[in-house]
Amino acid sequence: MPILFQNNFQHAFPRVNELQVSKTAEFLLALAGRSDAELSILLVDDQHIAELNKTWRRKSGPTNVLSFSLTEGEDLTRAGNLLGDIVISVDTAAREARKERISVHQRLNVLLVHGLLHLLGYDHEKSDSEAERMFRKERELLLELKRKRREEMIRLAVNVDHVATLRQARGISEPDPVLAAGICELAGAEGIVVHLREDRRHIQDRDVLILRQTVKTKLNLEMGATQEIIKFALKLKPDMVTLVPEKRQELTTEGGLNVAGQKKKLKNVISQMNDSGIPVSLFIDPDSRQIEASHNIGATFVEIHTGRYSDATSEEETEQEFELIVAAAEEAYEAGLRVNAGHGLNYVNTTRVASLDTIEELSIGHAVMARAIFVGLDQAVREMLGLMM
Question: Alpha-carbon distance 293 to 299, whole Å?
Fold first, then answer.
């Protein structure tokens, strides 16, 4: 195995997705033409890396990354498979991530690239020209990582509930959410989301039945775990269902599902859906307890509730809520769950969430429909997709 990974970072936060870091390192080795190389990665805290920094570089205090080559002074083409060690301080990476307004794993990727290039013979401290050469190579590798993420991960699913809300306000037949769904797909959306509420306040049975026949990408049926809607879903067989909490008085879904508090009931629903070949996602707050419960009862997906992040009124609150989303997505991913996210995302706050490699899909509705009033639905979807790239 080319990647030897050891995580000595013992703090509870931020959590590190070890599998993701290892896969990133393998991809980088392949890009560098060294897939056969053996690379050691060690994650530590500031205290540990400060000790290494003092011992080996005669410098005080922590640094972000250190590289220890096993081929120092040798011809790299004749050095065999042993490449060396990369040591990264997660403490420092987390501080730098907050400053740059990116996720900890995005910062870890940068440090991993930097450390690897040192092992491959690049050295920005030799001269200005060498520093420029190393900078160009770093940028090249990071762009390849970003391109890989785009190809494999993030998708946009558009919720068309608000088209039905406008229709129901007049009690007539337009605007039609079925037509809106078709426009969204033609504009590049890779999924359509509808919430069939128990009180039928917006989406109607007719809408969902026609969408099941016309949606070409993926139909995601949001629903409460009530017997009537469960029977409807089992007969409809959407591409997936997302179980959400539902209150008659709420304007929109106000929070995540309390999976831990109703495991028996939800496990039964998941079992019924799985028996019919319908994957189940659970809409949950970014909370470890809910993630563990979702995994234990057999959910395929979780959809991380981004409402508190979207509604944050200060920079500090925004950062705190974003880091909770990052940690939850990483934890769910590492537990083997597939991860989506949504609620309240708009044209200002979506890009950061879309950059998280662990999230496959964002569900966005209100912001797209509000933007569509001014620029048209096709353009509104394309603009959102542009922000997610």
Answer: 9
d(CA 22, CA 293): 26
Question: Whole-model pTM?
Answer: 0.70
Identify whether the C-beta of residue 34 lies closer than 8 Å to the C-beta of residue 83.
Answer: yes
Going by C-alpha positions, the residue among 147, 230, 47 that lies closest to residue 221 is 230
- Cα separation, 61 vs 52, in Å, equals 10
**Among all residues, which ones are annotated catalytic?**
195, 222, 343
- Domain annotation for the chain: domains and CATH numbers: 3-151 (3.40.390.30), 154-388 (3.20.20.70)
Preceding peptide of 245 cis, ω within 30°: no
CA angle 149/147/348 to nearest 5° reads 70
User: Under a CB-based contact definition with an 8 Å cutoff, are residues 323 and 370 in contact?
Assistant: no
CA distances in angstroms from 192 to 195, 222, 239, listed in the order given: 10, 10, 10
CA separation for the pair 155, 191 (Å, rounded): 8
DSSP 73: T
Dihedral sign, Cα of residue 124, residue 125, residue 126, residue 129 = positive
pLDDT (tens digit per residue) in 84-142:
999 999 999 989 988 887 778 889 999 999 999 999 989 888 888 888 999 999 999 98
